[in-house]
Amino acid sequence: MLGALNDLLAGLLDLLAGQGFLVVGAALLALLAMEGSLLIGLLVPADAAILMAGIASEGPAEVAGVVVAGVAGCYLGASGGYLIGRMYGTRLRRGRAGRWVGARRWERAERLMGGTDGGVTLAVAYFLPVAHALTPVLAGTLNMPYRRFVGWAMTGAAAWVTFYVVIGAVAGSAARQHQDLLVPLTAAVAVLVGGTVLAIRRFTAARLSRGREHALSGPFSRDHGLW
């Protein structure tokens, strides 16, 4: 069974290696741009896509290029989601799409931006599936100042993209040299990623429990302009 799994992973590795660097970078940029602005992050976990892009990258230049493409995609997605929130946020949240997302998810993402330390929590939200797909729209809906939002969002996006791309690149390089170790390498990556996400979940939960009272009525007023 382990042999069959190893062969499957080897085939996936060969498939990724066959994709051109420009194709991988362009695809990642497009996916991350749509994730924040069109909420497709609720359906497609971008974390896995970034990891795969890292695996397909060979050498420091390609790794750096994929990171730049990923961060650029995050910027476009975050800015687009913010603008949608400013223009249609309330209607979107109360409409069919908002009901499909679910009240608990909206409320959790909303609390990420409340309180005096909301910026830090907003940055680390990129490591939380679903939550970071909603925060751009909510930031616009709540009139969070754009510069503050995009500053913290890009800090988190840069860390998030770099983390997954580097892990993918290191794992991909090791796998190409030692294809007999694909299964344990995959398990090691899963443990590292899972442990990181769990630690960040606990970090944000602790912050949210200390600052729940700042959720909607906190630091953002309707007097703030777009910029």
Short description:
InterPro entries: DedA_domain, VTT_dom. This protein is an all-alpha fold and 227 residues long. It is 77% helix and 0% strand.
Structure commentary:
- It is found in: Cell membrane.
- The chain crosses the membrane at residues 12-31, 63-84, 149-175, 181-200.
- One of its GO terms (cellular component) is plasma membrane.
- Belongs to the DedA family.
- This protein is mainly α and 227 residues long.
- It has ten helices and no strands.
- The chain has one domain.
- It is globular, with a radius of gyration of 19 Å.
- It starts with a helix and ends in a 17-residue tail after the last helix.
Summarize the topology:
Blueprint (H helix, E strand, L loop, with lengths): L1 H16 L3 H18 L7 H11 L3 H35 L1 H6 L1 H10 L5 H7 L6 H11 L4 H32 L4 H29 L17
Helix pairs in contact: 2-3, 2-4, 3-9, 4-8, 4-9, 6-8, 7-9, 9-10
Query: Segments where pLDDT lies below 50 for 5+ residues?
Result: 1-13, 213-227
**Can you give the mean pLDDT?**
75
- Give the count of structural domains: 1
SSE run: HHHHHHHHHH
Question: How would you sum up the major sheet?
Answer: none
The geometry reads as globular
Q: Could you tell me the radius of gyration in angstroms? A: 19 Å
- By helix and strand content, what is the structural category? mainly alpha
Strand portion, in percent? under 5%
- The portion of residues assigned to helices is over 70%
Distance between the termini: 57 Å
How many helices? The count is 10
Number of strands: 0
Observed structural traits:
globular; transmembrane helix; mainly alpha; 0% strand; disordered C terminus; 227 residues; DedA_domain; membrane
